Amino acid sequence: QVQLVESGGGLVQAGGSLRLSCVASGRTFENYAMGWFRQTPGKEREFVAAIDAGSWSGYHTYYADSVKGRFTIARENAKSTVFLQMNSLKPEDTDVYYCATYRNGAVSAAVEVEFGSWGQGTQVTVSS
Which of 5, 65, 99, 109 has most Cβ atoms within 10 angstroms of its Cβ? Predict the structure, then answer.
């Protein structure tokens, strides 16, 4: 079982930036693709971004249309960490952000059910 701990959330004005981090432990991090989701209370989790493990198909990245061009996902396998750089933030980006592990090293379907372990989430609030 893998443990995930997110950090880096906070309050920022519209147009600002935040960088989220997620540190993994308990599993061979470099063998698994990683993803970020976000969720508003009462709604389903929404896919944000994902990155392949690298050993399977290179560090291919995937983004939701709503964040493409503004958010960047990256990983540092030596530190078992995945990042989400969020730029040009909008009030509609306000959510709790979660990182998660994919079932293998290459993302074929960026949907919640294909991701296993989840972190506790970090709150991102964007004021207008």
Answer: 99
Q: Cα separation of 103 and 99, whole Å?
A: 13
Dihedral angle, C-alpha 84, 86, 92, 96, nearest 10 °: 30
Compute the distance between CA of residue 94 and CA of residue 90 in angstroms, rounded to an integer. Answer: 8
Look over the chain and give the mean of its residue pLDDT values, rounded to a whole number: 94
**Is pLDDT of 27 > 90?**
no
Amino acid at the residue 84: L
Q: How far apart are CA 64 and CA 45, in angstroms?
A: 12
Apex 119 CA angle, 49 and 9, nearest 5: 70
What three-state secondary structure class fits 51?
strand
